[in-house]
Amino acid sequence: MLIPQTASAAVAHKSPFNCGKTFNANNWYPGHRPSGSIDWQDYGSDDINGEAVRATAAGTAYFYDAGSTSYGKWIEIHHSDGTRTRYAHLATMVRAAGASLSVGQGTQIGTVGSSGGSSAPHLHYEQRSSGGVVDTSPTVDGVTIALGQKKPVTSTNACSGNPYTPQEVCGSGYSVVDSAALSGGTTYLLYNSGNGYNCVVTLKSVSLGTPSPVSAFLEPQGESRVTDSGSFGYYAGPVRLSAPGQCVRWGGSVGSSSYTSPFEHCG
């Protein structure tokens, strides 16, 4: 007997900007290529240049660089329902061209710029089907922008907490094995059974997006401690070290709140 296939739930997209930011979504027509793509632009006195660009929905991000032509620095995210989004003319990307990264909704992937074939800073944005067809009336944060329309959209992206997960920061193959709550965040110990590496990351839950003191450290027994510390917007780490068959001491801090484990998780 045939078993019906269950379709993935359709992805709901949020604005690609920080919580509370308002920018114009311009689906201008005719002449925009490809038709249906959105140019995010200044709104009122709010300058979009240099703004953080965030994933509008969770998925796997792929990073590209077309140099001084076309999209310039650009990213495509493949989502769980098979659809894709594109983000182009970026000033910076969080990974180099050729890399990929698992991202959550709200994860920062780059910053707005004017790379490639762009005459002024803006974010070129597309929503595409699994077959690559551009949606000519995309919906973002509940606002549908049809061909020829220009609408201000206020972001609700990354409003509910840290947009990063410890797995995203440490990378593919890592799983959380322990954690410790801090006043203002959490420090995590992860392990990758495929390569024998541990990873420690500390995620903030306060002052998100604003640089403030945070740290993460890892110390295999009998070896030197490695620490990542500084004023960061979302997290410290990842600190990755090979420790197969070894006990580890790990921990981190957010502001004055800190945690240091005993030597544990041996083997």
UniProtKB/TrEMBL annotation:
InterPro entries tied to this protein: Cell_wall_metabolism_enzyme, Dup_hybrid_motif, M23ase_b-sheet_dom
Residue ranges occupied by any M23ase beta-sheet core domain in the UniProt entry: 49-135
Endpoints of the signal sequence: none
GO molecular function: metalloendopeptidase activity
Protein name, per record: M23ase beta-sheet core domain-containing protein
Lineage: superkingdom: Bacteria
Region (Disordered): 113-136
Source organism (scientific name): Nonomuraea soli
PANTHER family in the record: MUREIN HYDROLASE ACTIVATOR ENVC, PEPTIDASE-RELATED
